[in-house]
Amino acid sequence: MVSVLVILADGFEELEAVAVIDILRRADIKVVAAGLKDGPITSVRGVRIIPDVPLHAVRAEDFDMLVLPGGLPGTEALAKDERVKKIVVEMSEGGKYVTAICAAPYVLSEAGILSDKKVTSHPSFQQKLHAASISSEERVVVDGRVITSQGAGTAVEFAMELVATLVGREKAEQISLSMVCAPEQGSKKA
């Protein structure tokens, strides 16, 4: 079974975390939500989530994909955490998928893995990214094993792309139909 690590920090964006976790689990993908600290993690709008484990209890090699939700100040906390940057680098160098939405591609940039990648992010963070190319038009961008998306409004599209990447486009389409989602707008692969 494929497995995905989602890292949560206080100040995360709710839709970007919960929609992704929900849709991946609908696809029968094992998802482990890890908090930067022990105990509940509070979102930017005060929603409290109890992660499955604290971050210190996970190993990057146990996962096929990393997902970083955005939101502020959650993204800043992720970018400052050396454990998170180490996981980003380990998973990237290990040929695993490294993904981020909204402001969180900034974390990937700070970890130094975007220099040869095409990415997108929330418009307010695009100027902060050190990447080969930054798309302001595409809602979801796939470049090799790096997948990025623009924000809360693209969370379902982002999650469906993650499902398609891990277990196939047919499964993503089945879930999309069962959830009565709009037809896929598609992502552009670099």
Task: Please provide a written account of the structure.
By secondary structure, this protein is of the alpha/beta class. The chain is built from 6 helices and 12 strands. The chain has helices at residues 14-26, 74-80, 82-93, 105-110, 155-167, 169-178; strands at residues 3-8, 30-35, 41-42, 48-49, 53-54, 65-68, 97-101, 118-119, 133-134, 140-143, 146-149, 188-189. It has an 8-stranded mixed beta sheet with strand order 5-2-1-6-7-11-10-12, sandwiched between helices. Strands 3-4 form a two-stranded antiparallel sheet. The two termini are 27 Å apart. The mean pLDDT is 95.
Summarize the structure.
The chain has 6 helices and 12 strands.
Question: Could you tell me the strand content as a percent range?
Answer: 15-25%
Number of strands: 12
The main sheet comes to: 8 strands, mixed
Termini separation comes to: 27 Å
- Which structural category fits the helices and strands? alpha/beta
Poorly predicted parts: none
Percent of residues in helices: 25-40%
Write the H/E string, N to C. EHEEEEEHHEHEEEEHHE
Number of helices: 6
What is the secondary structure topology, with strand pairs?
Layout lengths: L2 E6 L5 H13 L3 E6 L5 E2 L5 E2 L3 E2 L10 E4 L5 H7 L1 H12 L3 E5 L3 H6 L7 E2 L13 E2 L5 E4 L2 E4 L5 H13 L1 H10 L9 E2 L1
Parallel strand pairs: 1-2, 1-6, 2-5, 6-7, 7-11, 8-9, 10-12
Antiparallel strand pairs: 3-4, 10-11
Helix pairs in contact: 1-5, 5-6
Labels describing this entry:
190 residues; alpha/beta; eight-stranded mixed sheet; two-stranded antiparallel ribbon; 6 helices; 12 strands; globular
